């Protein structure tokens, strides 16, 4: 170009590769593709080229053709090597993800590689390219440090995806819970449930906050506050926080919830006590402590000593029982109480026989008919995680109470079986003893789940908004109070919605997404907020189970950062990238290829 001095096309002695110009004679790079720069390089470095290979001569044409052919060979060689390196890196990421997803140690990568090599020796024995396959497997980077870096890179990518979703979502809710790992460090897990503009939800692990010292409410809040300030979490989108009932979480003055409400950075939000925890607390009102205490003592007396445990196993095997051992139970593992009691009841005859044969003192309760009847109620078997489940459970309890009053034991198979074994008729059962427990449990349910009384009619409306018997005034008032909306605007939108014939005919799966923002702004906000609510801290509870496996006694020195990395990769639902995005990668490859080209030319490894 006469005006700028730039070449519009690549001159013959140069090659345009990777957005830079290179001399095909010496592989040097030209900084700016201008005529003056090219001529200066040619005169300075290759001054004798015109003499040795005169312009427009056949010798020069042959030489240029030879140089171009040589360059193509170099490019093919480096492209192949780069392709193999990329494939090995991608495979390394995939294997690393499988390792951490299965909660294995980083150093297991070396074992996996060794297994690959041994398996390839047998699987590809008759393959012509066996050596090439084995070489590719050996090129896998699966050392402990490499697997660690791969997991850190994938976790960082997932974190970036998460924060993009947080920025894009319309609103979100949080659930918090705390547990102690094997090194006695308190770990506070925080999960987030995001709702987007199309009224779809996504749940992910937000963070894990290690508490090095005390775990008071103010300590957990301060750690949470520091995380918010560091990450710039958009707290104004917060709808609700779900926790367990620990004083550190729900204390009236110094609990985490109270501290959040006192902080001006937090909006007005809803707070719910985990439904599962409340159900467990209701179960304690049954006042059957003597049953659990005796059953736990008997199980521990058998399992606490190795000899006793082996003898009891042999006894069960000889008796051809369906179970080979008793279960253990502690109050901390309250969800397993029902399974523990059911197993104990099924093995009760074998337990009595074992104590008799062994000549040991029996627990007198094993021969107490009333104690055995109390044992068989199967408490804590219903896991409640939705409001509808709570209501259904209450209805079932009322129904069971009526059945007991009529001495109808069709729903109490274990109780009926024990009465038959004792030779008692159903009418001889003291049903008042058990109906009293059920009534107490129902009263406790009503007391503990009164937080949901305001939410229940709103949830009912959102499930089916076209009910003709709905009291619009009362419903609009409750929706406005819950989600801080204008009551009159909500009332108008409800009436408009219920009269919309077109919406009535639509599929309810994506119903609320069909409402336009202009016509139904309050209804869409209500639907999004309700969708964002957590009903329990189940995700936190399940993550603690994963945490116990990841940070076991064999990996007790694992750092808090690596614990979060492993936990995030083990439980995430987001899509992971296998290649680590590196903006410097292309420049590194380009520099490496140039250096290798010069070295190989000097050593004569690239033939003309």
UniProtKB/TrEMBL annotation:
Residue stretches making up the HAT C-terminal dimerisation domain: 505-566
Instruction: Identify the InterPro entries for this entry.
Output: HATC_C_dom (IPR008906), RNaseH-like_sf (IPR012337)
Q: What terms describe the molecular function in GO for this protein?
A: protein dimerization activity
Q: Which residues cross the membrane?
A: none
Designated name of the protein: HAT C-terminal dimerisation domain-containing protein
Instruction: Give the species.
Output: Oreochromis niloticus (Nile tilapia)
Taxonomic placement: Eukaryota, Metazoa, Chordata, Craniata, Vertebrata
């Amino acid at each position: 170009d006469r005006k700028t001095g730039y070449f519009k096309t690549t001159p013959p002695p140069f090659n345009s590769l990777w957005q830079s110009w290179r001399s095909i004679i010496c592989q040097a790079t030209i900084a700016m593709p201008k005529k003056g720069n090219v001529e200066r390089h040619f005169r300075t470095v290759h001054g004798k080229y015109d003499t040795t290979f005169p312009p427009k001569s056949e010798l020069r044409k042959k030489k240029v053709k030879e140089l171009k052919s040589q360059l193509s060979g170099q490019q093919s060689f480096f492209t192949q090597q780069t392709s193999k390196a990329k494939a090995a890196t991608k495979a390394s990421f995939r294997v690393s993800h499988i390792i951490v997803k299965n909660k294995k140690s980083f150093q297991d990568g070396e074992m996996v590689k060794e297994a690959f090599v041994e398996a390839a020796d047998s699987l590809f024995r008759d393959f012509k390219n066996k050596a090439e396959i084995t070489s590719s497997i050996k090129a896998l980077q699966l050392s402990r440090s490499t697997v660690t870096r791969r997991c850190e890179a994938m976790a960082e990518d997932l974190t970036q995806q998460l924060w993009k979703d947080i920025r894009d979502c319309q609103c979100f809710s949080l659930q918090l819970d705390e547990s102690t790992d094997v090194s006695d460090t308190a770990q506070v897990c925080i999960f987030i449930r995001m709702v987007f503009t199309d009224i779809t939800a996504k749940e992910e692990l937000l963070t894990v906050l290690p508490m090095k010292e005390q775990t008071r409410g103010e300590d957990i809040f301060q750690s949470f506050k520091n995380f918010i300030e560091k990450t710039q979490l958009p707290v104004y989108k917060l709808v609700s926080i779900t926790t367990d009932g620990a004083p550190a979480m729900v204390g009236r003055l110094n609990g985490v919830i109270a501290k959040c409400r006192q902080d001006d950075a937090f909006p007005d939000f809803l707070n719910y006590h985990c439904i599962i925890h409340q159900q467990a607390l209701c179960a304690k009102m049954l006042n059957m402590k003597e049953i659990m205490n005796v059953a736990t003592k008997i199980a521990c007396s058998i399992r606490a000593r190795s000899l006793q445990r082996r003898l009891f196993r042999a006894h069960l095997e000889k008796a051809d029982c369906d179970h080979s051992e008793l279960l253990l139970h502690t109050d901390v593992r309250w969800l397993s109480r029902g399974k523990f009691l059911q197993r104990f009841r099924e093995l009760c005859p074998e337990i009595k026989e074992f104590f008799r044969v062994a000549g040991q003192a029996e627990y007198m309760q094993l021969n107490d008919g009333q104690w055995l009847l109390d044992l068989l109620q199967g408490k804590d078997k219903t896991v409640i995680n939705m409001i509808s489940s709570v209501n259904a459970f209450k209805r079932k309890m009322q129904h069971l109470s009526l059945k007991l009053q009529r001495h109808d034991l069709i729903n109490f198979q274990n109780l009926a079986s024990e009465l038959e074994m004792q030779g008692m008729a159903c009418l001889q059962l003291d049903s008042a003893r058990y109906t009293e427990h059920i009534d107490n449990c129902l009263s406790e349910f009503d007391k503990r789940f009164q937080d949901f009384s305001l939410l229940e009619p709103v949830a009912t409306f959102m499930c089916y908004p076209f009910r003709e018997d709905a009291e619009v005034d009362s419903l609009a008032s409750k929706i406005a109070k819950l989600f801080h909306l204008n009551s009159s605007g909500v009332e108008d939108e409800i009436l408009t919605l219920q009269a919309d014939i077109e919406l009535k005919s639509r599929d309810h799966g994506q119903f609320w997404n069909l409402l336009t923002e202009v016509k139904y702004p309050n209804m869409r906000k209500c639907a999004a907020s309700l969708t964002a609510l957590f009903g329990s801290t189940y995700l936190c509870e399940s993550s603690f189970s994963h945490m116990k496996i990841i940070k076991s006694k064999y990996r007790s020195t694992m750092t808090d950062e690596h614990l979060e990395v492993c936990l995030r990769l083990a439980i995430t639902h987001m899509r992971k990238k296998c290649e680590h995005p590196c903006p410097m990668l292309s420049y590194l490859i380009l520099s490496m290829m140039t250096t290798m080209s010069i070295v190989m030319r000097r050593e004569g490894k690239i033939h003309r």
